Amino acid sequence: MLHIHPTRQTNVLLLCRRLILLVLRGPPCVRCLAAAKPNAGLRTWEHFRKLPYPGDEAFLYDTFPKDFIWAVGTAAYQVEGAFEKDGKGLSIWDTFTRGGNRMATGDVGSDSYHNIQADVRAIQQLGVSHYRFSLSWARIFPNGTRGSYNEIGTNYYRNLIRRLKEIRVQPVVTLYHWDLPEHLQRTLGGWANPEIVGIFRDYADFCFQTFGDDVKFWITIDNPFVVARHGYGTGVVAPGIKNDPDLPFTVGHNLLKAHAAVWHLYDRHYRPRQSGQLSIALASHWINPSRTRLESLRECQCSLNHVLGWFARPLFIDGEYPACMRERLGPRLPSFSPEEREQVRQTADFFALSYGAVLSFHLINDSLKFGQHEDLDLRKLLYWVSAEYNNPPIFVVQSGWYVLGKTKTEDPKHMYYLKRFIAEALKSIVIDGVKVIGYTAWSLIDGFEWHREYGIRRGLYYIDFNTPDMKREPKTSATFYRYVIQKNGFPELPEHRPARGTFPCGFVWGVSANSIQVETTPTLFADPSVYLWNISNNGQLQKVEGFSAPPPRRSTHCADYDTIRQQVDQIQKIGVNHFHFSLNWSALVPTGDVAHPNTTLLRYYHCFTRRLLQANITPVVTLWYHTRQRSSLPAPLDAANGWLNSDTAEAFANYARLCYRELGEHVKMWITLNEPNDEMVSYQEGHQMLQAHARAWRAYDREFRPSQGGQVSLALHMDWVEPAFSFSREDVEPAKRVLDFRVGWFAEPIFGKGDYPLGMRRWLRQLNSLDLPVFKEEERRLVQGTYDFFAISHFSTELVTHAKENSYTYTAKLEVQLMIDTTWIMSPRPVVPWGLRKALNWVREHYCHVPVYVMANGAQEDPAHFKDNLRVYYLYNYINEALKAYTLDGVNLKGYFAYALNDQRDPEFGLYGQVHEEVIVKASLSNYRNIIQHNGFPIQGAAPQECPSRAEACWGCQILVRKPVVGFLTLVGSLVLVTLGLIIYYAAKAHKECY
């Protein structure tokens, strides 16, 4: 007979029993037997670093699994109130809020004790499938033990569960959410005393007996990290103990053993009949490395292990604390005996995760960050949990954000963080393969927010705590959450899908630059040196020291400017047929008087536009570009009050005539003012700018159009503004107001009725403002209709709401708040491709079939990123939205210009980069060229689009036809070739340039 030591016999029996249970529960749990590799979650940072950027960050339109759990939650002390009613005993929070410098209590909270029906009605309105709430231990057992049983308190929870079942909502019940009976704290020392393990087990036993037939999800303890570290360490929360730095680890040890005891109790005695599942709610922050070194990643891993792994590793893996905790804490960290390890390990049926504005995210101090950076990223944390703990089913049992206590029913910040977390959970399922089984929005109603008291609000329903009835009013976040639940996520709609098709033949493809490089000193024939050529039959030039040639006796030619050739060559390689750039008014007419222009600069612009045409590129020229950094007006005009002076408008018209006369032979598309509708421009300045534009347009129309046949307009900055709450009519009006003030301000007088938008005038009249000038009749006639096309610069989109939250930019004049959707890609401005389509449709809706050009569209990205994936993504998707506007919406779109040509002139926006003197072709340039070559996004398999081809320029023709070939004579000597080598060199160079 085999004899086994009693201790080993117990271990063998426990192991055999566990094997039988695992087999009975089926394959998913059998996998738990495979031990996780140490620090398996360490691969998380590398995994996400390798995902395609920014495509992986794009919003995912998809739905959750059909059986996905949608939940909402509360905690007893935060919402119940009735702290002494019907026999309830005091909890440690009842005592804690009456000590020290505490200002408020949860005595009444949200008064859910007297408002079950109101809470249930709110739950029903949301459409959730589950409701997570906690039991007040002291309401059931006033002194914490069964001998003090309180029937009335127990009936409160029976009634709540019954009401939930009536509306077909499953309860998710938390046994302990931080409100320990005060008697246990006072007599035993609370969770610091190991005796509490048995007491908690007995309390749980009663709850399983009483409520278990109706409860399929149990949470033993909520966020033990906060209980241990902040309740018994920092003293931030109840019971507020902070004298012993080692006490939190003792408390955490007891919390783990208490949870394990309850799990085994349920597993043995209640699971066979009640068929429920049980876990512990663990909360965590997410953390990113400050450097890419392995040491930083290990510090991130250790940070997560000190917060989440402290409790997760013993429960989900091997009954031991994480190695980095043991290494750093040494004997301060308690140890489990072999029997305790076996008792603790794998005592969770699913991973219950809390994430968001939990105390563990705000770590109070930096001690557990280990020099790394906290970050909000639920998706990465879900992946880490899955990797670290053998891919368990994960139920997000608490998630959300908060707003300041002054916020009422409009809570855009809360709503968009909720959207972000739900979207990250969806990506975790669909893309990463993580087994996320449910999501719980936190919380149902506003309540007492622990150490922050009533200073913040986290509810989906608003409560005015100063009213006796505590009426529950749905916030916009509640409406949003209900919509998400109804659709089971974010189903893809037709407008979300990329369009296939091409733009019309003759569509304008361009690139824009704020300015061009100007080098008015000819580089050709500027070198007086003498060279030897081909002396070794290698075709190279060798400089002859001590010799110089006389200066050339001829006038300057356009081909003498290397900068022109280089810039045009760069533009041509993109494949565009148009190039848009701005002239420098202050440099062209320094005195403001066109009788004294800078003829050298004017000739340079003449040569540049001519060279563009020779390269089959149509120049598009802006006469004046608004810059915030400087006036960009000629100094005398700037000194004479700039645009506020009515003479400046006439001076601008004369400047425009000069440009039309000198450059109009080559330029057929003019922009008078580029982006004058800047918020830094006053209404009085804008009034004069409108007249300046009109005078310039009418000068061209009368004096130059008959002979030159060009077109003239102005270009307006038009980023899109979307109502923050798309389902709320209250935000539609603020969005219209912002667009009136930003775009309609300049557009309506020119393209519309010859006056400022009616809504703009009404709003300012309502504010008793006289700032907006009034058009005289002759001014209205002058301005109205002065356009040939509608040109916009578009880069990004903002959200607007009438709600006021201190955390966002509030514009008092318009009484609107501007914000962003936290799910948007940032560049650093939001990347929102559909905003361009909406902007183009706004133009169509307001001004019918007017021809439209997108004159500038681009993304800001680190100039060092030559593989500029963000800009590649940006251009592809924005152009695709422009195609939708043309093909699906009927916008009369004539052209698209990418912004910008290079980083040298427009830092961080260029299709070309530069390192020292070397020009770098970025990935975005190649991708943009590919789109141009296909004239859009052709349908796969469709016949190629047939368009007449443009005549190609002949580079060698002009020099060969217009100029004689330069002959040369060489005299060979033994040491020096005294020649006309200079002629050889420059003739060869001129021939190569083919002017």
From TrEMBL:
Position of the signal peptide: 1-25
GO biological process entries: carbohydrate metabolic process; embryonic cleavage; fibroblast growth factor receptor signaling pathway
Keyword Aminoacyl-tRNA synthetase: no
Pfam families associated with the record: Glyco_hydro_1
Keywords for this protein: Membrane, Signal, Transmembrane, Transmembrane helix
GO CC annotations, alphabetized: plasma membrane
SUPFAM superfamilies: (Trans)glycosidases
Gene Ontology terms for molecular function: fibroblast growth factor binding; fibroblast growth factor receptor binding; hydrolase activity, hydrolyzing O-glycosyl compounds
Residue ranges of the TM segments: 965-988
Superkingdom in the source lineage: Eukaryota
Protein name: Klotho
Classification lineage: Eukaryota, Metazoa, Chordata, Craniata, Vertebrata
